[in-house]
Prior knowledge:
By secondary structure, this protein is α/β, with parallel strands linked by helices. The protein contains twelve helices and 14 strands. A nine-stranded mixed beta sheet has the order 13-12-11-10-6-9-8-7-14. Strands 2-1-3-4-5 form a five-stranded parallel beta sheet, with helices on both faces. The N terminus is likely disordered.
Amino acid sequence: MTIEGSSEEAREPRIRLGMVGGGAGAFIGAVHRIAARIDDQYELIAGALSSTAEKAMQSGRDLGLAPDRTYSSYREMAIREAKLKNGIEAVSIVTPNHVHYDAAKEFLRRGIHVICDKPLTSNLADAKKLKKIADESGALFILTHNYTGYPMVRQAREMVANGELGDIRLVQAEYPQDWLTEAVEQTGAKQAVWRTDPAQSGVGGSTGDIGTHAYNLGAFVSGLELHSLAADLDSFVEGRRLDDNAHVMLRFKPKGSEKPAKGLLWCSQVAPGHENGLKVRVYGTKGGLEWVQADPNYLWFTPFGEPKRLITRNGAGSGAAAARVSRVPSGHPEGYLEAFATIYTEAARAINAAKKGKAVDPAVVYPTVDDGVKGVAFVEACVASSKRNGAWVKV
Length: 395
């Protein structure tokens, strides 16, 4: 991967980064911190790591943050850091969904770039308001749909855009897991408790947690925009208040004179045998593609009427889009953390360009606040459709 600051070009100063959430015991906070460090583009210097003051301070100490840069509230952090000469330039928001809107708003209004975990917010009204605030702030907003950072996902997107599949007809995405097969939220399991609580997660359970990833990935690779959907949502575990399984039919907007593409999406957290089974398949008039997250360095391409072909990361047949986000030679696996790091490095490139008042290189790709609004709209449309017995709902 060509990293700014490598021997090929002048080293950019590390971006001063803050974090909201992600304290002791928080899985995704650690992932974000690792991702920010992999390409050495950021330095974590401040944090409001927990809503509990004592836990926030202890988490700050564990991460080596200075006591005066460790805060018990994100608002206090935003206000003070914006005034400091060496204050943070960007903030990572890694809290449960219901905090995203208020936290992001505080930093955006002070011109601080935001890197936010998905989904954008817990409801569509807040998502639309946050988009307006982001657009008016002049600050960048990066949404960490990390699966878009995999080299072979970029390869698939490039092949579709180049017309190698012809006119797209079908998009199929699935994301099954099994970790909520039993009511683990009733045992106090931290990751399950907030994800199954409408007050913290929003109206979507599996749809909001992993369905948004599958939807975003299908749209990212295919280049299509969703028009409408019909959804059948279930809460199979007794007493669970949010969906843990969803089957969704998709209709995409036509591109030019092409016949509109159709799609199918399945997401589940009650599918025993599936740890993290994200998969996307795209079919067109000239051929098809298949990518599986569990084997991410491989992309299967089948030109119509020809044998199935295997394209490997940095191997024969892979193109520039994959190469620019690859870090190691072919045959050496890159995975989840590296894909997450790609989003952070793309964000760093955009932030450094903004600091210089320059346009961002068109090759730089990352999910934006607009993608976030689409994701929340997808979730709410799924819920609305399911309540109407699977009626078609425009997104």
